[in-house]
Amino acid sequence: xxKSRRFIYFKILMLATNLxxxxxxxxxxxxxxxxxxxxxxxxxxxxxxxxxxxxxxSNILSSALLFSVLILSFTVREFIYPNSSKAAYLTLIIDFxxxxxxxxxxxxxxxxxxxLVIANIITYTKGTVGRYxxxxxxxxxxxxxxxxxxxxxYRLYSINxxxxxxxxxxxxxxxxxxxxIVSINVIMFIIYCINVIQNQRGTIDEVNSLxxxxxxxxxxxxxxNEQLKEYSIITEKMGETKERNRLAREIHDTIGxxxxxxxxxxxxxxxxxxxSPEETKKQLEIIxxxxxxxIKEVRRSVNKLRPDALERLNLKxxxxxxxxxxxxxxxxxxxxxxxxxxxxFAADEEDAIYRIIQxxxxxxxxxxxxxxxxxxxxxxxxxxxxxxxxxGSGCKEINQGFGLRHxxxxxxxxxxxxxxxxxxxxxxxxxxxxRWSEEYDKSTYS
Length: 446
Hints:
The protein is an alpha+beta fold.
């Protein structure tokens, strides 16, 4: 921002310097002609010069008007449309044309105004064909629009002739002032070009610095990509491990539940064998059926990892079927109550609820020798509370084996919590968040 302002100030000073030079020439010649006429030496003066300005008064007005257009063009380019390339090129062409007209009006006594045009071309054209074309035209114009060169073939008036009208002391002051204005304009143009070069060098340094930063960023990105690849490999392995654990849980739940029922049923058969062979036979038929269903369940668990009962039935019916099969094979009475009218949840939620009940019943019979089990489901806005309690032997110190760990993992996967209590029988309390479906009326829970 400070650099751009500095360039604008330089161009304003150059604009002011050229305005002083142009108006000095036109106004000086006008007043000198008036003085010559007042002294009645016009004839003598005409004989000593090669040419005279056609209309001195019009030259002043025309120069002032053209310079006003030049100032307007500068204002449009610098302040109104500073970021428009079209406005820049259009105003640069206007500047060049206006400058040529002013040089013609001055009879080529001053062409320094083209340095201002070149300064603007350097600023507003960046490495394009238009930039080089305008630069070539402007430089050629400076070389061609030289008084000594043009005056060879054309009769032009010279400001030196009018300065020569005055005495030697005045001539020194006038020539010194005019040459000072011309020199200041050239010096300011040189300083401006040096500043542009330094600014471009600074821009190149900034570009190099940004390039180095970009290289470093690319290197960091490459390392990050390598780390991401390593992370993806680790994540894939973790996913495989997680899937293996889930498969192990599914098989454990199915086989454990089935074998527990078979074991309890066989114990009952041993007890009944001597007393009632017919009843024992019926019991064995039931055990055989449950065994076959268990085998199917294991196969299905490996293939689909979802309880077969849930594939065929809704959650509530699947729980009832599991309870009926367990009661038919064992001497355990299971009581199920649900205060949620519609047990219709997402597949992962239903799987977890079914398996928690299944594992809890299996543990109650296998480890607690329970004769009565109570399964209770309650709901609220956040989810359900599943409680499985038995009248078995319980335990003071709970050693979490494979089954209890799987219950915790299942609940944790659904962002829920689970508690175990072995002081009075054994109790499992699982709080499971539920993603209530849109069609589910949450007013049905109590």
